[in-house]
Design goal:
This protein is an alpha+beta fold and 206 residues long. It has a single domain (2-204), classed as Phosphatidylethanolamine-binding Protein (Alpha-Beta Complex). Helix content is 12%, strand content 25%. It has helices spanning 32-45, 183-193; strands at residues 61-62, 64-66, 74-75, 90-93, 101-108, 117-124, 130-131, 141-142, 162-171, 194-204. β5 (101-108) and β6 (117-124) form a beta hairpin. α1 (32-45) runs parallel beside α2. The longest helix has 14 residues, at 32-45. It is globular.
């Protein structure tokens, strides 16, 4: 549920993962070899805490993220495996002073032990405030997703409605990682540099 996502959190402490029974049902998960590396980075990144360069967890400044396409917080089929399979448009605001870059993470809101990452975009310029449908800002890079491909892996809600998180991060650095970098490496870079964060949770239907 959204209350477990530390939505627009101003404090740290939410790990962004769940161990409740049934939390893993119907969720694709990465191979066991990558699970341990992902879990460590995800606990910080999806929980919304950064280190501000000191090693100590600090609460990020609140940001806003949304999309004109998300009417009533619904993910249209156009952006799922049942439709055009393209990435939705997004817009954000509220990046704090000192922001050097922006990152976007799309993951499964059910938050199992190793959440499934559908899309991770980083190396977005600090002045950017949006992503257009099916495209990327100039200079932006994409990490490998949980499917092992680079780019947007469209969510595929099954027999029941499913929730997905779109999270924006303001970073105090511009991660020097290549396009197609591994999830653990990019998530670790985000965790070490987060100074702002915003999130929207949307529901996808079969």
């Amino acid at each position: 549920m959204e209350s477990r996502d530390c939505r627009m959190t101003r404090t740290c402490g939410c790990s962004g993962v769940s161990s409740r029974p049934g939390a893993n049902r119907g969720v694709r998960r990465p191979g066991a070899g990558r699970a341990a590396a992902l879990a460590a980075a995800l606990a910080v990144v999806l929980g919304g805490c950064g280190t501000a360069g000191t090693g100590a967890a600090v609460p990020p400044a609140p940001m806003s993220i949304g999309s004109a396409a998300f009417g009533q917080n619904v993910l249209p089929q156009r952006y799922t495996c049942h439709g055009q399979k393209i990435a939705p448009p997004l817009e954000w605001s509220g990046a704090p002073p000192g922001t050097k870059s922006i990152a976007i993470v799309v993951d499964d809101s059910s938050a199992p032990i190793t959440p499934y990452i559908y899309w991770l975009v980083f190396h977005i310029g600090p002045d950017a405030t949006d992503i257009q449908e099916g495209s990327l800002p100039t200079g932006a890079r994409q990490a490998a997703n949980s499917a092992g491909s680079v780019g947007y892996d469209p969510p595929c809600p099954g027999a029941r409605p499913h929730s997905y998180r779109f999270t924006v991060y303001a970073l105090r650095t511009m991660p020097d990682l290549p396009n197609g970098a591994s999830l653990p490496s990019v998530l670790s870079a985000i965790a070490a540099a987060t100074i702002g964060r915003g999130r929207i949770v949307v529901t996808g239907y079969p």
